From TrEMBL:
Alpha-beta TR is a heterodimer composed of an alpha and beta chain; disulfide-linked. The alpha-beta TR is associated with the transmembrane signaling CD3 coreceptor proteins to form the TR-CD3 (TcR or TCR). The assembly of alpha-beta TR heterodimers with CD3 occurs in the endoplasmic reticulum where a single alpha-beta TR heterodimer associates with one CD3D-CD3E heterodimer, one CD3G-CD3E heterodimer and one CD247 homodimer forming a stable octameric structure. CD3D-CD3E and CD3G-CD3E heterodimers preferentially associate with TR alpha and TR beta chains, respectively. The gene is TRAV10. Residues 2-100 form the Ig-like domain. One of its GO terms (cellular component) is T cell receptor complex. PANTHER family: IG-LIKE DOMAIN-CONTAINING PROTEIN-RELATED, T CELL RECEPTOR ALPHA VARIABLE 39. This is T cell receptor alpha variable 10. It is found in: Cell membrane. InterPro entries: Ig-like_dom, Ig-like_dom_sf, Ig-like_fold, Ig_V-set, TCR_alpha_variable.
Length: 100
């Protein structure tokens, strides 16, 4: 059964501090993992897309890590700002195989 779980469910931190969000998944075969930021009342915005071979990817103050062996990813936010207040979504895509 393919599952994706994020933690913590909610997080309150002081402005200027760092924080880390976790994503664990059981999706197999794995294609890619994406982190999105969704502001209230708006659609999700892609922060990063990671494939099996990528361990770390940065986008400004956001750094995502991926460990495909343990099937977990983290999103690290450096020097948080008020504008970081949002929902963060981890999406894992399965690799679709077609029969020959």
């Amino acid at each position: 059964k393919n599952q994706v779980e994020q933690s913590p469910q909610s997080l309150i931190i002081l402005e200027g501090k760092n924080c880390t969000l976790q994503c664990n998944y059981t999706v197999s075969p794995f294609n890619n993992l994406r982190w999105y930021k969704q502001d209230t009342g708006r659609g999700p915005v892609s922060l990063t897309i990671m494939t099996f071979s990528e361990n770390t990817k940065s986008n400004g103050r956001y750094t995502a890590t991926l460990d495909a062996d343990t099937k977990q990813s983290s999103l690290h936010i450096t020097a948080s700002q008020l504008s970081d207040s949002a929902s963060y979504i981890c999406v894992v895509s399965a690799l679709c195989s077609t029969g020959t």
